[in-house]
Recover the amino acids of this structure.
């Protein structure tokens, strides 16, 4: 696929067509990744290509150890692929050095998971770290405003280890949107919440996306399809590391589509 073009699903047979990449779109093209384990090479991702358009939520469904965290880390610029490219608008992340990618991470692209900080610091300070280049007080003020926005004002001044699972999710979402990023990458943040809390977190995430300015795209991993019912598109990873489209729209029970046997989401 030519640089600057991404795969977009046409609706008729779900075949991909080439469209020009736009500002704020996250594009992965031909991504491969593997590891050497016990002297043997193990493939994790195989020729994966897809895009996250500004303003949409894309979910990757998969169990643990199936490669979805690796895929998300590559998309966020945390890891490099063995082969292929990752671009945010006109900026090709895979062409950048480690320092340049680190500057983007936490500002243009935000990574969110449930691990929290290694040091036991206050939640508002942890949230403000990626924005500290604009001044610590400014960053912490944005963090407090974001906590208030998600209804977690009580977390200000409390350390990460003192927060409940639900509060950690709220802090994670507040941290993601505090600095008006272009893309938010969320790894298993909603796992283990239960049905009601998962629905509340999903509604909150959708509200944050729709109110973001400029409009932000979200790439997230979930362990089951029920946690992705609000997503605009849903993919799953196969055991061989290829990506398959499960739903080209919010996946209600009636519109989860069978994927064409002769076509992968990477256009292969």
């Amino acid at each position: 696929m030519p640089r600057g073009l991404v795969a977009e699903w046409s609706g008729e047979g779900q075949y991909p067509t080439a469209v020009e990449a736009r500002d704020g779109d996250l594009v992965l093209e031909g991504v491969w990744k593997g590891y050497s384990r016990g002297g043997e090479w193990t493939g994790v991702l195989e020729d994966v290509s897809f895009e996250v358009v500004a303003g949409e939520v894309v979910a990757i469904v998969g169990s643990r150890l199936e490669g979805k965290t690796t895929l998300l880390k590559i998309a966020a610029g945390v890891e490099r692929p063995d082969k292929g490219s990752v671009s945010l608008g006109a900026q090709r992340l895979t062409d950048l050095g480690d320092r340049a990618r680190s500057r983007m991470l936490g500002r243009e692209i935000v990574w969110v998971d449930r691990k929290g900080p290694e040091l036991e610091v206050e939640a508002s300070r942890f949230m403000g770290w990626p924005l500290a280049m604009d001044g610590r007080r400014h960053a912490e003020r944005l963090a407090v405003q974001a906590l208030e926005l998600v209804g977690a004002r009580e977390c200000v001044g409390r350390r990460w280890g003192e927060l409940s699972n639900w509060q950690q999710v709220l802090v994670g979402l507040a941290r993601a949107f505090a600095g008006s990023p272009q893309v938010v990458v969320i790894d298993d943040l909603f796992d283990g919440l239960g049905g009601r809390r998962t629905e509340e977190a999903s509604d909150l995430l959708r509200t944050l996306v729709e109110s973001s300015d400029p409009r932000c795209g979200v790439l997230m991993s979930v362990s089951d399809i029920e946690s992705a019912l609000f997503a605009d598109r849903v993919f799953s990873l196969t055991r061989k590391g290829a990506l398959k489209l499960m739903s080209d729209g919010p996946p209600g029970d009636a519109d989860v589509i069978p994927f064409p046997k002769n076509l992968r989401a990477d256009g292969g």
